Amino acid sequence: MYGFEALTFNIHGGYLEAIVRGHRASLLTASDYNNLCQCETLDDIKMHLSATEYGPYLQNEPSPLHTTTIVEKCTLKLVDEYKSMLCQATEPLSTFLEYITYGHMIDNVVLIVTGTLHERDVQELLEKCHPLGMFDSIATLAVAQNMRELYRLVLVDTPLALYFSECISSEDLDDMNIEIMRNTLYKAYLEDFYRFCQKLGGATAEIMSDLLSFEADRRVVNITINSIGTELTRDDRRKLYSNFGLLYPYGHEELAICEDIDQVRAAMEKYPPYQSIFSKLSYGESQMLDKAFYDEEVKRLCLTFEQQFHYAVFFAYMRLREQEIRNLMWISECVAQNQKSRVHDSVVFIF
Amino acid sequence: MAEGAGGAAANGGSDEKVLDFLDSVDSYLTTMESLAPILRQGWFDLASARHSMGVFRVSSASLDLKDHSASTYLQMVGHESDDSFVGQPSFSLCKWASADNKSCCSEEEIPDSQLRHRGTSRLSENQEQNSNGDDSLKTVDDLVKKERAKTLSVFGTLVSPKLRTAQLSFETALEVLVEAANIRSSMLSAYSQVQKQMEDTREGEIGPIP
């Protein structure tokens, strides 16, 4: 019952909540980002990061560094932290933590299937997969010819099995079907995660429903903008939208028929939380939309730490680390391409 | 008098050839200078796309290794003999050739009108055909859009607009490169003409060897 978590939460979740709050304190600050933005080379970035918790992961990397190396090693740190929390978690926190990785699992499945379609080596594809989304039989995905086989041979024994019922068909896997499969799986995952959080109740349900609704709404906007000018029909586009969120259902009806960014803007500005996001953009422009959404997401994630005795802090921490890794990737690319004047186009300060 | 008039005409002719050569050098340098910022913008847009879509989604692992025909061809006209250029080689880009229909969706010969040239510019036949009729333009546009989307589909069907912008930047860079190749070809041709002119003038001054 909401309000009584203070009595019982710490029995099973107190230790890990303290751990995750400790990890949160090690996120890079604005002064760290200012130093990084002034670096001239990737080796300078490595030198600055050696004073942070990323130091041990980068210290043995030989020069010349590559931006993908920095991203890989920083991601390894996140994976290590996640695994150490997962192995010490009890139910239902352990299930909650596993839910956080299902999105990466979906991306990995799509990567393997697409790569196999393009006759890539399976070993090479496995190296490119996100480590948080790995599962035992992932390499067997290369054998499947259609979605039915994909499900029957591999995914039936994974947590993604539940989400497959909406997209099982005997159609051959091609680029469009794979994209629809990706988005359908992600839609089903988000809805399932939402229902799970509602079942947990209390502060977790309240805070996670806000965060997941925002995620669902952002997906709706991205699907709409990315599908403008493509062969995806309005009906198919509508089917990819999640059935919850602030935009559901009336916003979805309007966005499904949008043909350009200005129509998307007109539909979104009816909702006050998104009006502030679109007010930062000029008409006809969508380049800065990603940054505006990331800014808003980071604000909401930081607010979760203001309250205690709920699981949303774990979700928020994982997302904030992923944002930090995105920031490091962006800064590295700007430094490598000698475009330091553009570095603030996409860096989102966390604290 | 006749000799003086003939000499003046010859000087005027050689001056024109030198001016042609200098014009072509200037155009070539200008074109090459314009290439670097376009490529920079393309790489930056690609980094933006990776930031937006995720580094695991936009990576070399997504590229297609199956046998497939190129979507863009470079055609060369004109050849070199042992002694000199029989014809000045020129290059044209055949962009977005469809696998079903081997003809190009958008064939361009980079016009010489880009040069500060004393001659008249000329347009390719395909460009003249495309400018006639809105329907044919629309069809070409649709085909080009389709081919562009097909090339990007290795990263997924629903890609970020930033990836499409990167594609356009690299497409523009390719056009500039072909333009630079044509200008270089004109420059080398103008240079060989100036050299020939100078040798002829020297022989004329020395006179035939007894």
Automatic annotation (TrEMBL), chain A:
Transmembrane segments: none
Ranges in a coiled coil: none
InterPro entries: ATPase_csu/dsu_sf, ATPase_V0-cplx_csu/dsu, ATPase_V0-cplx_dsu, V-type_ATPase_csu/dsu, V-type_ATPase_csu/dsu_dom_3
Pfam families: vATP-synt_AC39
Keyword Ion transport: yes
Gene Ontology CC annotations of this record: proton-transporting V-type ATPase, V0 domain
Record GO terms (molecular function): proton-transporting ATPase activity, rotational mechanism
Keyword annotations from UniProtKB, A to Z: Hydrogen ion transport, Ion transport, Transport
Domain of life: Eukaryota
Function of the protein: Subunit of the V0 complex of vacuolar(H+)-ATPase (V-ATPase), a multisubunit enzyme composed of a peripheral complex (V1) that hydrolyzes ATP and a membrane integral complex (V0) that translocates protons. V-ATPase is responsible for acidifying and maintaining the pH of intracellular compartments and in some cell types, is targeted to the plasma membrane, where it is responsible for acidifying the extracellular environment.
UniProt family annotation: Belongs to the V-ATPase V0D/AC39 subunit family.
Assembly: V-ATPase is a heteromultimeric enzyme made up of two complexes: the ATP-hydrolytic V1 complex and the proton translocation V0 complex.
Listed name of the protein: V-type proton ATPase subunit
TrEMBL record, chain B:
GO BP term, pick one: vacuolar proton-transporting V-type ATPase complex assembly
Source taxonomy: Eukaryota, Viridiplantae, Streptophyta, Embryophyta, Tracheophyta
Xref: InterPro entries: Vma22/CCDC115
Compositionally biased intervals (Polar residues): 121-134
Region listing for Disordered, in residue ranges: 108-139
Signal peptide bounds: none
Protein name per Swiss-Prot or TrEMBL: Vacuolar ATPase assembly protein VMA22
GO MF terms, alphabetically ordered: unfolded protein binding
